[in-house]
């Protein structure tokens, strides 16, 4: 059985499975009922791993084990699997949120804050920089910087990037605006995103930009995040950015932004 890598990648992403799990699950879906050995051969998964992987799939609600010898596995209908996975993910998410809520105001959080404050005091602010891998990590860091902003946020992005950022960052931008932060966004304005642009009236200034294909954000003339790759050519999981805290470089980028902003 030949399953496209793209399909396997989608299954891993949507169902939170590892490579062996999606291979065996796809193989079982194509057979309906099968033994671990048969599935191992079909999916090209080592036999030594097939039993524990199938056991994992059984616990997660993707397959059931048929009684008898030899042991066989039965595929559960995909629609039922989707419902089960949604239910399990919701339960796990709620449990994790409850655990995190208990940390607030606890001795553990105080210890972590002390460790961080003592450590950060030893670091030269000009040396602070980091590599951000994956679009989720990138957006989480943009969100963090906007939360700490006091004066201004300048954002340059692409057409699709503009829509994604407004979906994910809008609540934080609204809070920043209430603090008096000036927000300016430069991006291609198209029929597809015009409604979003109009909805930002009073929240951010948005200007059309189709000359510079770039993605970066500056905050308060101190922090800069710039993306290394074109978002048209990279999978979200492999998107890459760099954050630097450097007034010198950030000021230079702000000057470039202002020049572009003020040009006709």
Strand and helix layout:
Layout: H1 5-15, H2 19-31, E1 33-35, H3 36-43, H4 47-59, E2 63-66, E3 72-75, H5 78-103, H6 107-120, E4 129-133, H7 135-148, E5 152-156, H8 159-178, E6 182-187, H9 194-199, E7 205-208, E8 216-219, E9 223-227, E10 240-245, H10 247-262
Parallel strand pairs: 5-6, 6-7
Antiparallel strand pairs: 1-3, 2-3, 4-10, 5-8, 8-9, 9-10
Helix pairs in contact: 1-2, 2-3, 2-4, 3-4, 7-8
Main beta sheet: strand number and arrangement?
Answer: 7 strands, mixed
Distance from N terminus to C terminus (CA atoms, Å) equals 58 Å
**Strand runs, count:** 10
**Overall morphology:** elongated
How many discrete structural domains?
2
Question: What portion of residues belong to β-strands?
Answer: 15-25%
Record the strand order, biggest sheet.
4-10-9-8-5-6-7
Under the CATH scheme, which architecture of the largest domain would be assigned?
A: 2-Layer Sandwich
Tally of helical runs: 10
Query: Which topology of the largest domain does CATH recognise?
Result: Endonuclease, Chain A
Supply Rg. 24 Å
Low-confidence stretches: none
- Provide the residue-averaged pLDDT: 89
Structural class: alpha+beta
CATH class of the largest domain: Alpha Beta
Q: Which series of helices and strands comes N to C?
A: HHEHHEEHHEHEHEHEEEEH
The CATH superfamily name of the largest domain is Endonuclease Chain A
- Percent of residues in helices comes to 40-55%
């Amino acid at each position: 059985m030949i399953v496209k890598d793209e399909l396997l990648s989608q299954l891993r992403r949507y169902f939170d499975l590892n490579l062996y799990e999606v291979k065996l699950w796809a193989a079982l879906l194509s057979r309906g009922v099968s033994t671990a050995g048969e599935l191992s051969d079909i999916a090209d998964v080592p036999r030594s791993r097939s039993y524990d992987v199938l056991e994992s799939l059984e616990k997660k609600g993707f397959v059931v084990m048929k009684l008898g010898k030899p042991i066989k596995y039965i595929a559960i209908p995909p629609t039922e699997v989707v419902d089960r996975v949604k239910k399990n993910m919701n339960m796990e998410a709620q449990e994790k949120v409850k655990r995190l809520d208990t940390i607030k105001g606890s001795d553990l959080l105080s210890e972590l804050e002390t460790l961080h404050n003592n450590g950060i005091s030893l670091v030269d602010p000009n040396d602070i920089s980091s590599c951000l891998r994956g679009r989720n990590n990138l957006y989480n860091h943009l969100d963090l910087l906007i939360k700490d902003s006091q004066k201004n946020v300048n954002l340059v992005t692409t057409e699709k990037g503009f829509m994604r950022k407004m979906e994910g960052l809008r609540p934080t931008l609204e809070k920043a605006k209430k603090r008096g932060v000036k927000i300016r966004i430069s991006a291609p304005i198209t029929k597809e995103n015009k409604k979003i642009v109009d909805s930002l009236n009073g929240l951010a200034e948005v200007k059309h930009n189709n000359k510079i294909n770039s993605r970066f954000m500056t905050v308060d003339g101190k922090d800069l995040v710039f993306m290394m790759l074109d978002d048209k050519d990279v999978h979200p999981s492999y998107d890459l950015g760099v954050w630097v805290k450097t007034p010198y470089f950030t000021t230079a980028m702000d000057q470039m932004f202002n020049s572009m902003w003020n040009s006709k």
